[in-house]
Sequence to fold (195 residues):
Amino acid sequence: MHDHSRAHLDPRSPLVLDTRDLPRRPGSMRALERTVSAPEDLGLELIGVPQGEPVRLDLRLESVSEGVLVSGTVTAPIVGECGRCLRPIRDTLVVNLQELYAYEHSITEETTEEDEVGRMQGDLIDLEPALRDAVVLALPNHPLCREECPGLCPGCGVHWDDLPVGHTHAQVDPRWSALSKLAGPQAGPGPEPAE
Fold:
């Protein structure tokens, strides 16, 4: 069943690919290199690609019998914070992208669900959903500034790397506090009490 309610694509949008110059003969191919601004909300809660940052697309558009296969790499800056110590993270994400876009009225379009295969609108391809899926799925749910990050001391909230070796917070169970008062300071053996 068709979804004719899809929004009309703007061919001037940087994430809309125009395939008019790609012959519809299987095996025809065209390389596409483009830098676009990152759309909003491209990420997870703790890490993602900031809106407006440059995202590099190195793609190959290939005609296949039922549509256009888009494959290649996406390179984007990622910014976030460490899930253990809350320090800032800045890195570059390189992710592979591969998506088939079915021609309108093709057998593939007629026989697949909307979420199984991308759909073309005439000669236009909306790359944003595939870009979003590829980037978001490649991001860590629990980002770390480094693999061995020790995190923060639960007692004082200071990063373990900034604390001296042996740092502790003596926690006395309140049920034993009365006994610790009876024990008093341990001064060592003293003189024998007089009789």
Observations:
- The helical segments are 107-111, 128-138, 177-183.
- The mean pLDDT is 83.
- DSSP finds three helices and nine strands in the chain.
- The longest helix spans residues 128-138.
